[in-house]
């Protein structure tokens, strides 16, 4: 049997994994034509790790896994970005501040910040992939003394699809005082104003100044991106155990019971969605 252990044991929790806690929507903001930002208030702090997700529900409609976009902390607010794709997310997009949603979790392994201590960090994100990786980037940027340089490569289809633009620009601007650099790309400008680069997220990797033995990579985006990004990283000498990938799968229970999220015998909802690449690279279907 394949086992994919996280670097450290997950934290203990005092919540019942099958029972949603009710959260009140504080803010909903349109980010792009398809994505809305949500800020909700929970009865108690979630105590999540970067890269974990929750099962978000609306009574009588349904439930779906949604990544946590806020950084780990001890307050009881939770930020998410939700793309309208189907029945549940359509309903969520029509809710108003004051409405309630159910939250189960946090679930999954997430990123262990201890692994990143003292290392240069390279985050490569595509599209909605910035949403879970923001929960990692925020604590890295907040405590620059604990980490080496931080590089973020963020790509999306057109300028109109870019998420968290103001934050990306602010992180880039902070680079003069701190070792943060941000490379923003679009596949095409679609005749819209654009102050970043044009190309795929793989393009800048070949010329990045990076020390393969001191760099940890966190990767999150559409499945098609992973294979090509990993090929570029390997060509730069990055050992596979220094590459962490966030792999999303269809999920139902979130607690390893239903089997919906399995890659071979590995349950993505518990052992993932963040995996160290050398531990799953041999699993069939991992990058499909
Ligand atoms: C760990 C994890 C984290 C996620 N984080 C986010 C997030 O932060 N923001 C966000 O908007 N979405 C996120 N998703 C995806 C989200 O859970 C699905 O889009 C969800 O099914 C939408 O529910 P729905 O009822 O509106 O759509 P549905 O009616 O379930 O589906 C609508 C369409 O999307 C397709 N679809 C559904 N689920 C998936 C999937 N997992 N992969 C590919 N296609 C799918 C369906 O086939 C259908 O065509 C995440 C998924 C996972 C597994
Ligand atoms: S979602 Fe049910 S086993 Fe992972």
Q: Percentage of helical residues?
A: 10-25%
Largest sheet: 7 strands, mixed
The total of helices stands at 7
The H/E string reads EEEEEHEHEHEHEEEHEEEHEH
CA distance, first residue to last residue: 20 Å
Bound ligands:
flavin-adenine dinucleotide, FE2/S2 (inorganic) cluster
Q: Quick check: average pLDDT?
A: 90
Radius of gyration: 18 Å
Strand order of the largest sheet: 10-9-8-7-11-12-15
Strand-helix topology:
Layout: E1 21-30, E2 35-41, E3 53-58, E4 62-67, E5 77-83, H1 87-93, E6 100-107, H2 113-116, E7 120-126, H3 130-142, E8 150-156, H4 165-173, E9 180-186, E10 197-198, E11 215-220, H5 223-235, E12 243-246, E13 262-263, E14 266-267, H6 268-271, E15 274-276, H7 277-280
Parallel strand pairs: 7-8, 7-11, 8-9, 9-10, 11-12
Antiparallel strand pairs: 1-2, 1-6, 2-5, 3-4, 3-6, 12-15, 13-14
Bound molecules: flavin-adenine dinucleotide and FE2/S2 (inorganic) cluster.
What does this entry look like structurally?
The protein is α/β, with parallel strands linked by helices. 19% of the residues lie in helices and 29% in strands. It has helices spanning 87-93, 113-116, 130-142, 165-173, 223-235, 268-271, 277-280, and strands at 21-30, 35-41, 53-58, 62-67, 77-83, 100-107, 120-126, 150-156, 180-186, 197-198, 215-220, 243-246, 262-263, 266-267, 274-276. A seven-stranded mixed sheet has the order 10-9-8-7-11-12-15, sandwiched between helices. Strand 3 and strand 4 form a beta hairpin. The protein starts with 20 loop residues before the first strand and ends in an 8-residue tail after the last helix. Mean pLDDT is 90; it is low at 8-12. It binds flavin-adenine dinucleotide and FE2/S2 (inorganic) cluster. The site of FE2/S2 (inorganic) cluster (FES) has 12 residues, from loops.
